[in-house]
Amino acid sequence: MSTSMDMPEEDESGQSSKAENVESMRNQLKAEVETIDEFENNCMKEALLASRKSKPKLVSAQAVLSSRLEPEIIQKELFVSASEKPEDWEPNSMLNWSETNTGAKEKDRENENTKHTAGKGGLFSGEMSRKNTWLAGQRERLRGKRRERLEGRAENIEEEDDNTANEKEMNPGIRLRHTQRQWSSKEAQDEESEKDVTGLRGAAQGNIDGDAEMRGTIPHRIFSKVLANSFASSSSSSSSSFNYSSAESDEVFSEGEEMAKRKDVRRCRSWRTFLTMMQWSKRRQSSWIQLAGHQGNFQLGESGEVLKRFNEVEDTCLQALMSDPLHQFVPRYHGHISRNGENYIRLEDLLSGLKQPVIMDCKMGIRTYQEEEIVKARTKASIRRDMYQKMVKVDPTAPTEEEHARRGVTKLHYMQWRDSTSSTATLGFRIEGIMTENGIVQRDFSQTQSKAQVTEALLLFTKRQVDILEAYLSRLDVLKETLKESAFFRSHEVIGSSLLFVHDRPTNKANIWMIDFGKTTPVPSNVHLKHDIPWVEGNREDGYLLGLASLISLLHVAIREIRGQGLKTHHSLTEHIVSEFNQHQPGINEATTDFLKETTVTNNMD
Ligand SMILES: Nc1ncnc2c1ncn2[C@@H]1O[C@H](COP(=O)(O)OP(=O)(O)OP(=O)(O)O)[C@@H](O)[C@H]1O
Ligand SMILES: O=P(O)(O)O[C@@H]1[C@H](O)[C@H](O)[C@@H](OP(=O)(O)O)[C@H](OP(=O)(O)O)[C@H]1O
């Protein structure tokens, strides 16, 4: 894994070589990390088990089981053995912790960077404080042990390495650390450790492009690059989902960058950096981020796989899709597995092998409820308090008087309201969540409705990078063609399914995947779905192609916007979108165009 690293030469005193020392330190650390892994996995397992009883949708802004959070966890617990669990450690707390609202979480991180005190403010202050106090104690003790173990060796290695490193390549943050690397006082060492934690977080969260300020930290430039680009060999051995499943995989970035990054790898020799990288890289290969959907529905699988809670409807669809032309857009299906008495579907992990995945989940279709839910609402509707609460939080006037009185709504009413207040009913898709490369997850798109708002979100997601937008466009074009050939698509009402957009600059990949077939059902053989006409109860149309057309046209709008041809006025943008739509959907029927015109006119474009 580290063969390309420059390790120190053997010294003259005949002592064992520094390379061996580093090797031995690495092994020690590896062993420790494995112990921690086991501990974390157990905690996570218990947490997931506990969360199974109820499985609310993910509502907070942070990813579940996010590998981007792992470096932080590793740093917090790096030197803690499984047997040293605090008494008040609860498995569930780990899950909660990783689901903390991003804003609060970032604040907590900043606070942690400066001091580890109990009783801080913030959403999870009590929990964080307990953990912090405990972790600070553990860290302190283990630092002592580590110091004993490494003293005398580390300093030499580090000094030599730092001296040989080209200082011009260092940013001020690294130089600061360089001058501060004195092991003489406890304070100096503590400060140093904190800086490393900070650097790791920044780097691990893809903090290459100046997002550091958000965390009140200076990104470690070389370190960040190394993290982003080293271990290419190890990660390439795990299958890249893009290459594996898709012949159309889009390589959107230039080769030149790769060369520059390799140079950086050679330059980076700090043993500390090296060891930390090892931890981080180990975790990064099993990256998993759940952007949307129900909490507790997923588990980590074998390398390159995720496990999704078994659902017969979805399972049947996935099996059928494996032999359909659409298979290239669907994660590979590997059958079932049972864990702790629960059945799971084994799916290809679409993030496997990626280094800084940027993800967007778009729920497709002009409605997200099945026709049978209407029937159910008429006959035996259950009243949902949770949905009432979600509803009034956004719009206290949305429930009817009767619903206010009973403080509950039917699921159908809630779903219809969600569809009408987002872009689902008008554009035929809605954004469920976006994770940018710095690891920040945004799920607050429930009111993102107009084309202008959605275009803004697309620009945010792609960071206004035309090559990425174009890669997505070409992928959507292939999808559109493939859908025409798909027997599966012709014969299924596709409700609540998502397109997962994923790009990853370090590996030059961008791709789009069809996921979530839990509410995709076959229609009787005498029903011929078009997928591009408005829905009326009974026709079972889902408007999937309307959503696809909207997405395509809005990607075009986004590209024009970047190229300075953005159309500013309400009217012109409306016209533009309709004309884009016609241009890109020549086969579309009049009803669809009318539908789009209607929805365009009713949208607020400002
Ligand atoms: N095969 C996969 N590889 C990587 N990530 C995935 C995969 N499948 C799902 N995800 C992640 O999990 C999230 C939720 O997936 P999915 O929509 O299938 O879950 P769900 O619980 O059925 O959702 P819903 O509640 O909308 O029905 C996605 O947004 C994506 O981030
Ligand atoms: O996105 P929101 O506003 O959180 O609302 C959820 C969303 O509409 C899901 O699609 C739906 O699950 P299904 O599609 O599986 O029905 C879930 O219903 P649920 O709470 O009954 O699971 C809703 O709570």
Gross geometry: globular
Sheet bearing the most strands, described? 6 strands, antiparallel
Helix content: 40-55%
Number of helices: 25
Heterogens: adenosine-5'-triphosphate, D-MYO-inositol-1,4,5-triphosphate
**Annotation, overall tally of beta strands:** 14
GO molecular function: ATP binding; inositol hexakisphosphate kinase activity; inositol-1,4,5-trisphosphate 3-kinase activity
EC number: 2.7.-.-
InterPro entries: IPK, IPK_sf
Keywords: ATP-binding, Kinase, Nucleotide-binding, Transferase
Give an account of the 3D structure.
It contains 25 helices and 14 strands. With about 600 residues, it is of the alpha+beta class. It has a domain at about 370-425. The chain has a six-stranded antiparallel beta sheet. The protein has a four-stranded antiparallel beta sheet with strand order 2-3-5-4, with helices on one face. A hairpin with a 4-residue loop joins strand 2 (about 300) and strand 3. Helices cover about 50% and strands about 10% of the residues. The protein has helices at about 20-50, 70-75, 90-100, 100-115, 125-150, 155-165, 170-180, 185-205, 220-230, 230-235, 240-245, 255-265, 270-285, 310-320, 370-380, 385-395, 400-405, 410-420, 425, 450-460, 465-485, 485-490, 545-560, 570-585, 590-600, and strands at about 250, 300, 305-310, 335-340, 340-350, 360-365, 385, 410, 430-435, 440, 490-495, 500-505, 510-515, 520. About 45% of the residues are buried. D-MYO-inositol-1,4,5-triphosphate binds near residues 368, 390 and 418. Adenosine-5'-triphosphate (ATP) binds near residues 289, 347 and 351. InterPro entries: IPK, IPK_sf. One of its GO terms (molecular function) is inositol hexakisphosphate kinase activity.
